[in-house]
From TrEMBL:
InterPro entries: P-loop_NTPase, PRK/URK. NCBIfam families: PRK09270.1-2. Signal peptide: none annotated. Pfam families: PRK (PF00485). The lineage of its organism: unclassified sequences, metagenomes, ecological metagenomes. Residues 27-208 form the Phosphoribulokinase/uridine kinase domain. This is Unannotated protein. One of its GO terms (molecular function) is ATP binding.
Length: 211
């Protein structure tokens, strides 16, 4: 049976409980449709949790480069599962899990650049809590299942769909799309991806409601 969490504070308390019950590093996956509030949740947790021993690994850092997407003919579907390097992401989660006393670096995606910067993020040897957030952590294809089995818990972030769509359109406008293009992308590419992600919620250990 899936655990339900209904507030940001309860989410924080759950992380603390998991960390206190383990002597090892814990990894929590935050999953949800575009605009569901994954970043809202992860930002809140990062502010509340001990800064010296907590790290955030966004899946967005594993976007294929724009050059790769152009070469593969996938530029117009950027954000779909096959526009990410799921193998490199799974390799990173395996490394974080198996080598806790080694500094580990990972790429960070910058929306204003629409590209990732290699080795910008870092997991330090004394990091105890790792939050990793992204759309496709619970997919059952490509290399995503390899990282799933290493998560202490997977959380599916849920929200009112109208609010989610409004956030998405506003985000696209903020980063340069016209209102018309933002609406088309949110209701087209983003929505197709959202339907795929929604189908994975059954695999989550926890459902987090942020309405």
């Amino acid at each position: 049976m899936q655990l339900q969490i209904n507030s940001l504070e309860a989410a924080y308390e759950r992380v603390i409980s998991l960390s206190n019950s383990s002597t090892k590093r814990i990894i929590i996956g935050l999953v949800g449709m575009p605009g569901a509030g994954k970043s809202t949740l992860s930002t809140y947790l990062m502010k509340k949790l001990p800064k010296e021993t907590t790290a955030l690994v966004p899946m967005d850092g594993f976007h294929m480069s724009n050059a790769q997407l152009s070469q593969l003919g996938r530029s117009e579907r950027k954000g779909a599962p096959d526009t990410f390097n799921s193998n490199a992401y799974a390799d990173l989660i395996e490394l974080i899990n198996s080598v806790p006393k080694k500094e580990v670096r990972f790429p960070i995606f910058h929306r204003e650049l629409d590209e990732s910067i290699e080795d910008e993020g870092v997991i330090y040897p004394d990091t105890k809590i790792v939050l990793t957030e992204g759309n496709y952590l619970l997919l059952d294809e490509d290399e995503w299942p390899r990282s799933q089995k290493l998560l202490n818990e997977s959380w599916f972030v849920d929200v009112n769909n109208n609010r989610r769509m409004a956030r998405l359109v506003a985000r696209h406008i903020k980063y340069g799309k016209s209102p018309e293009a933002a609406h088309a992308w949110a209701h087209g590419t983003d929505q197709r991806n959202a339907e795929l992600i929604e189908a994975t919620r059954i695999r989550a250990d926890v459902i987090v409601y942020l309405d």
